[in-house]
Specification:
Length: 381
């Protein structure tokens, strides 16, 4: 399971790195915006001083020209001059036809505090230029763009990874089926030879019969592998009966201390569209995992019932259970709690149920040292 721990750590590290980059960007942008805001307020203060000075009729020509120049320099910052009674006397840098009273209300609600003037203009209100406003919104835009980029990248990489995994699964499965074909054919030929040469030996014929059963099982396994990657044929099958077939097969190979509590085929029939060899593979895998979790002693219970548009199968055991921290990775390739094994069974089971049967499979509940329940949901026939 170290592969999943390392994967989780890398996600955390990348997340922290992204947050740090965003934080630096936001702080730096806010710093620039604050400096620009200070500059704009300084310009407005200079404008107010110029207006106050201009009201002084004793100015010489040189002072009057420098004062008017200071007023002209404020060609972008919108300002509104208001008297002591609240009456608007003047406004600058607003488009023609703008509702100045409404603009003043907006500034009072959200803008910077006014600057005190002299004479008829007791208060000078102003709002930030469009450039400063855009700069203040820039961190939010940057965050949204970065999140969108991360989301698109994640979806693209996830899709590519799933496609690659699919090709690996299909290639491995078909190659396994192909490799099994040759020894199976050879075993069948040897069994036929034994029948001809030792047909009168009762004990030998009993062994041959058991070997034929095992060969038939191997053929079934090869057939299952060959179906991976191709569209399987789905038939309308009684799921209660099919579930009981899996129970019979596994019960013969389980300890006598294991109790199987399955629905009675004579009591109920529920039909779903399945591919029997692949469906049986999934159920047998769940039962085999349950037997391993119980160490040969315990109870395996199966329940089957209808729920909305699905037929639901619950398979429970009284085994060791699965830690809550591992529940998200149980269906990922490589997950296993056994000392031996590749951890591919549940991953294949998920692929078979979801990709080929349009169903769902998940861990319904799991309590340490009490047991686990897996649920399979299949569309009704």
């Amino acid at each position: 399971m170290e592969i999943y721990q390392n994967k989780s750590r890398w996600k955390i590290y990348l997340g922290i790195a992204a947050i740090v980059i965003l934080a630096i960007s936001v702080v730096y942008t806010n710093f620039i915006a604050a400096k620009l805001a200070e500059g704009e307020r300084g310009k407005v203060e200079l404008y107010v001083m110029a207006m106050n000075t201009l009201n002084n009729t004793d100015l010489n020509l040189e002072d009057q020209l420098s004062t008017e120049l200071a007023i002209v320099e404020n060609s972008k910052i919108p300002v509104i001059s208001v008297g002591e009674t609240g009456k608007i006397f003047d406004s600058r840098n607003y488009p023609e036809g703008a509702d100045i009273e409404k603009e003043l209300e907006k500034i009072k609600a959200n803008g910077a505090p006014p600057i005190k003037g002299e004479g008829y203009a007791a208060l000078i209100y102003y709002k930030n230029t469009r450039l400063l406003t855009l700069l203040q919104y820039f961190p939010l835009i940057q965050v949204l763009l970065l999140l969108g980029f991360i989301l698109v990248g994640y979806l693209a990489f996830s899709s590519a990874r799933r496609s690659e995994q699919n090709r690996v699964w299909v290639g491995m499965a078909k190659e396994t089926a192909h490799q099994l074909g040759t020894p199976i054919s050879a075993i069948i030929a040897w069994l036929e030879h034994l029948k001809l040469s030792k047909g009168s030996d009762v004990e030998t014929m009993e062994i041959v019969k058991e070997l034929e059963n095992d060969v038939e099982r191997l053929n079934l396994v090869a057939d299952r592998f060959s179906k991976i990657g191709s569209e399987p044929k789905l038939d309308q099958i009684d799921l209660v009966e099919e579930l009981d077939k899996c129970r019979v097969y596994m019960q013969k190979r389980a300890s006598k201390k294991t109790v199987f509590d399955f629905p009675n085929v004579d009591d109920v029939s529920l039909f779903g569209k399945i591919n029997p060899p692949l469906f049986d593979w999934v159920v047998e895998n769940l039962l085999r995992n349950a037997l391993d979790a119980m160490d040969g002693t315990g109870k395996i219970t199966a329940k089957i019932y209808e729920e909305s548009e699905f037929i639901v199968i619950d398979i429970s055991d009284t085994g060791k259970g699965i830690p809550s921290s591992k529940l998200k990775t149980v269906f990922q390739p490589g997950f296993t709690t056994k000392k031996r094994g590749w951890g591919l069974g549940l991953s294949l089971a998920k692929r078979i149920i979801e990709s080929y049967h349009s169903g769902k499979i998940f861990v319904k509940s799991s309590i340490l040292n009490e047991g686990t329940t897996f649920t399979i949901k299949l569309p009704k026939a």
